[in-house]
Amino acid sequence: MTEAAQTREERATALKGLGTARKRVEDVRFTQGKGNYVDDIKLDGMLFGDFVRSPYAHAKVLSINTEAATALPGVVAVLTAADLEPLGLHWMPTLAGDKQMVLADGKVLFQGQEVAFVIAEDRYIAADAVELVEVEYEEQPVIVDPFKALEPDAPVLREDIRDQLEGAHGPRKHNNHIFTWEQGDKAATEAVLAGADVVAEEMVYYHRTHPCPLETCGCVASMDKVNGKLTLYGTFQAPHAVRTVASLISGIAEHNIRVISPDIGGGFGNKVGVYPGYICSVVASIVTGKPVKWVEDRIENLTSTAFARDYWMKGKIAATKDGKITGLWCHTTADHGAFDACADPTKFPAGFMNICTGSYDIPTAYLSVDGVYTNKAPGGVAYRCSFRVTEAAYFIERMIEVLAIKLGMDAAELRRINFIRADQFPYQSALGWEYDSGNYHAAWEKAMKAVDYEGLRAEQAKRLEDFKAGKTRKLMGIGLTHFTEIVGAGPVKNCDILGLGMFDSCEIRIHPTGSAIARLGTISQGQGHATTFAQILASEIGIPADDITVEEGDTDTAPYGLGTYGSRSTPVAGAATAMAGRKIRAKAQMIAAYLLEVHDDDVEFDVDRFVVKGAPERFKTMKEIAFASYNQAIPGVEPGLEAVSYYDPPNMTYPFGAYVCVVDVDVDTGVTDIRQFYALDDCGTRINPMIIEGQVHGGLTEALAIAMGQEMAYDEIGNVKTATLMDFFWPSPFETPNYQTDWTTTPSPHHPIGAKGVGESPNVGGVPCFSNAVHDAFRPFGLTQTNMPHDHWRVWKVAHDLGLHG
Amino acid sequence: MSKMHVKMTVNGKEVEALAEPRMLLIHFLREELNITGPHIGCETTHCGACTVDLDGKSVKACTVFVAQANGANVTTVEGLVNDDGSLSVLQEMFREHHGLQCGFCTPGMITRAHRLLQENPNPSEEEVRFGMSGNLCRCTGYQNIVKAILAAAAELNAAREAAQ
Predict the structure, then answer these.
(1) Which of A206, A335, A656, A688 is most buried, by the most CB atoms less than 10 A from its CB?
(2) Within this chain, do residues A465 and A610 fall inside the same structural domain, yes or no?
(3) Which backbone phi and psi does B119 adopt, to 5 degrees?
(4) CB distance from A268 to chain B under 8 Å?
């Protein structure tokens, strides 16, 4: 069929633009093993680095003897802090304004800390040499409890900042204290609590966990001494930021550094930070003149690179006796580990924890967060969430349940009474955010209807009766959650990392034959950017998505951007893509008008072409316009068809969702069986429904893992008890349920295409939903709060402590 | 360490090399033969990213010494494409049903699924979930992986019936 004979709908369909369940372009490579991940990179003469790590959580390092290791054939060098010190690289700045040891400088502060870096001809020799490095330690008292860390006589962990009263985020009140962050109105909130009909109070702990992507962190550093250029390949979620940081740390001019993020095997926040392995690899490459590869093993990944959560959230929620919430108070004790290496925007040391009023119209609120040092690994990253949003969502969704118990009220109804109404948007929250759009009641009613909520409650009541009559040993729990996220960081006016504003970018070049390449400042780790960004562009510029290459991750070619985490790619880089597309379209309009010999204003865009208004038979397709831009001398118009946009979002976006989980709990074994999980997500305009659904499935499964068993557990002397996949719960296909997905669409009013981002919503909403389901099963027996993860033993223990074992 | 002479068939081709006997099969494939489809995810036989087919059985190449694979017939994901280089039914179904995201687990998943469908050409959903339980994915939540394998089984069975 010729183009002219196609109907408008056929032309639109052919673009595979917004709303299309387009198959992923990435998959042809990945399904046949042709991905190119960092460990697949092989350069001539490449050496391998490996770490000597501390077996102790807190110890002085008395001596390091590298003689035997260095003597091993095939070992090129062994680096210690003493070697890095003359370069000023034995410590490095963290993203949170703190500093962190690259290699142990006199002491170690967590188990698995980097002590020495061995460089050898292959990874086996490197591993052999690690065993030959002799380190003499003197053990020190270990603190793994953040509350004990703040006791007056607690041992000082960070000797390097002993008695420094001012930290990166204000005054420090103890040697193991990092910051206090306060939001909202303390006095007003306390007054509301004092005068309230009802106040429910609870300590909600969100345990320490780990993003644990299937591919661990790693890099290949290659210093070309001839031209003075450093190429750094790595598992970086923010390649441009890594380039700038590498330049600032190393002193190598930024134009002489090229950072390349190849294919990345999952990130989930773990690959945002800068790790000692990167620094050591760069130094090793400079010292040896050869490329140096360093790739973590799983134990190293779990014990030393960025963990997530570990928030102790003390809450008080006030309400009238008929359930209208009047105030919310929260004090969080945040365990940051040995160094403050959180990856948050500078002005937000506790991330966006102040979204903790959730989906509810709470007039008065107060939040304070104390960051604390302990003898655990540093991190505190946004694990599949936007900077502590999962903690905030878990906190408020647990507090709602606790309040419902106190009021003797149905938790669905309590939510309904308190939701921010559709007519209240844009909504100003008590803790300082302006929610862009939402229709919570509509989403909630759709969810309640879809699962037949009343029917479920009736079944649950019957089950309880049977349980009490001794006819069954299984209780039924119904978990509810309505979450609101805050993603798309963010406006440069209040969001930066190390002073770099959190805008993002897209550059588009249209080729003469009408196909295109778009480059972005973000980097996919499985989200399918090569597929979805082409779809945004297809709808904006009328070139089929199949004719658009999307490229990311090479700082020599991609425009500057802050990378992919915190669900920021669609809200920020996706907006930049649309805006750059609109620049292309504006120029194309001038070219079309010239070719059609009419005024610019007399042509209009129509799917894949510009048509003369009122004369649709007179048109120029984008393909024709692209060619004309290269071969016609058009007065007042430069040749070529290219555009770039750097997008500074005016606000965050606020995706939301309504989730319901139904669980059967065997009180004798503690085994939980997820019978049903319904997830309604509203992520604004939907770009690719297939990919959205896939993101929801994946996020829910990580939520399942976190809620039901996945944790970073430490014993009292700081040994990591969950350092391999034997102990660190990662659900297999057999333990994972099927999910029902659903949606409503409430576009963001400020985003060019109304999209909000979705990748992290299911993790944010899923954790409280699974956890609430387990709690709900035991509600009739007096349970108000028990800590995650709800593994079989803990669930059994809850049943036991409630007297259900007779 | 002294090296041993190793000989095996990999993706239909005979290969010979000198390797330390302690070298793991996964490193032999990836670093000596440049077959980088199978990946390393845990090094403790839990995740299955390194799954290869060894003499007709799914094995995790991160915990097999190259010495143990001497003389064996090894197939990796690279060896599963059709002879004309097009995607196999399984590979195509993973793409069709969005059974992958970051792609890191995918080679192991597909290699295991390939063997599973030899062992049980007509599996139920539960049998697929059980048969794939040695392969972990952090991105997809498995729902679409299971869908892809069931769809591939249906298509392969239909083709088999048509051929008979």
Answers:
(1) A656
(2) no
(3) -70, -35
(4) yes
Residue of chain A whose alpha carbon sits nearest to that of B143: A738
Concerning whether A385 is annotated as a catalytic residue, the answer is yes
Indicate the length of chain A as a whole number: 806
Residue A221, domain CATH: 3.90.1170.50
Statement: residue A579 has pLDDT above 70: yes
Cα–Cα distance for residue pair A693/A124, rounded to 1 Å: 42
The answer to whether the CB of B47 falls within 8 A of the CB of B112 is: no
**A237 flagged as catalytic:** yes
Q: Are residue A639 and residue A664 in the same domain, yes or no?
A: no
Residue A340 sits in the same domain as residue A469: yes
In this structure, how many other beta carbons lie within 10 angstroms of the beta carbon of residue A693? 22
Q: Would the CA dihedral through A776, A778, A783, A786 be positive or negative?
A: negative
Question: Is A733 an 8 Å CB contact of chain B?
Answer: yes
A736 touches chain B (CB under 8 A): yes
Cβ-in-10-Å burial (0-12, 13-18, 19+) of A324 comes to: middle
Residues A700, B141: C-beta atoms closer than 8 Å: yes
Residue A172 inside a domain? The answer is no
CATH number of B89-163: 1.10.150.120
Q: Of B62, B138, B147, which to mutate for an interface test with A (greatest number of A Cβ within 10 Å)? A: B138
Of the candidates A24, A525, A726, the beta carbon closest to that of B46 is on A726
Cβ pair A726:B145 closer than 8 A: no
Q: Which residues of B touch A739 (CB under 8 A)?
A: 141, 143
Least Cα separation, residue A700 to chain B (angstroms):
7
A700 has a chain B CB within 8 A of its CB:
yes
The per-residue pLDDT for A497 is: 85
Domain range annotation of chain B? 4-80, 89-163
Q: Mean pLDDT over residues A544-570, rounded? A: 93
Q: Based on the domain organization, do A14 and A76 belong to the same domain? A: no
In terms of domains, do A315 and A382 share one?
Answer: yes
| Rounded Cα–Cα distance for residues A207 and A313 (Å) | 11
B-contacting residues in A 506-525 (Cβ below 8 Å): 525
Closest by alpha carbon to A47, among A75, A86, A23, A18? A75
Instruction: Say whether A330 is catalytic.
Output: no
Least confident of A27-31, A264-268, A288-292, A522-526: A522-526
Q: Indicate if A319 and A295 belong to the same structural domain.
A: no
Q: Is the peptide bond before B56 cis (omega within 30 degrees of 0)?
A: no
Burial of A780 (0-12, 13-18, 19+ CB in 10 A): middle
The reply to whether residue B91 touches residue A526, judged by beta carbons under 8 angstroms, is no
- The count of structural domains within chain A is 3
Q: Is the pLDDT of residue B124 over 60?
A: yes
CATH code for the domain in which residue A611 is found: 3.30.365.10
Between A123, A214, A694, which is nearest B138 by CB?
Answer: A214
Instruction: Place A4 in a pLDDT band, splitting at 50, 70 and 90.
Output: low
Q: Given pLDDT bands bounded at 50, 70 and 90, which one contains residue A5?
A: confident
> A515 is in which domain, residue-wise?
3-35+504-647
Residue A409 placed within a domain: yes
- Mean of pLDDT values over A643-672: 97
pLDDT of residue A3: 53
Using one digit for the tens of pLDDT, what is the confidence trace for A67-121?
999 999 999 999 999 999 999 999 999 989 999 999 999 999 999 999 999 999 9
Contact state of A724 with B42 under an 8 Å Cβ cutoff = yes
pLDDT of A250 strictly over 60: yes
Looking at residue A569, its pLDDT comes to: 87
Structure tokens given for A753? 């295409």
| pLDDT tier at A564, thresholds 50, 70, 90 | confident
Superfamily of domain B4-80: Beta-grasp domain (3.10.20.30)
Inform me whether the pLDDT recorded for A1 exceeds 50. no
Percent of chain A scored above 70 by pLDDT? Answer: 100
Is position A280 annotated as part of the catalytic site?
Answer: no
Q: Tell me which of B26, B98, B124, B135 to substitute to probe the interface with A (most A C-beta atoms closer than 10 Å).
A: B98
Residue holding tokens 């995201």?
B101
> Is the Cβ pair A266, B94 closer than 8 Å?
no
DSSP state of A803: T
Nearest CA in chain A to B145: A733
CA A739 to chain B, closest CA, distance in angstroms equals: 8
Question: Are the C-beta atoms of A232 and A257 separated by less than 8 Å?
Answer: yes
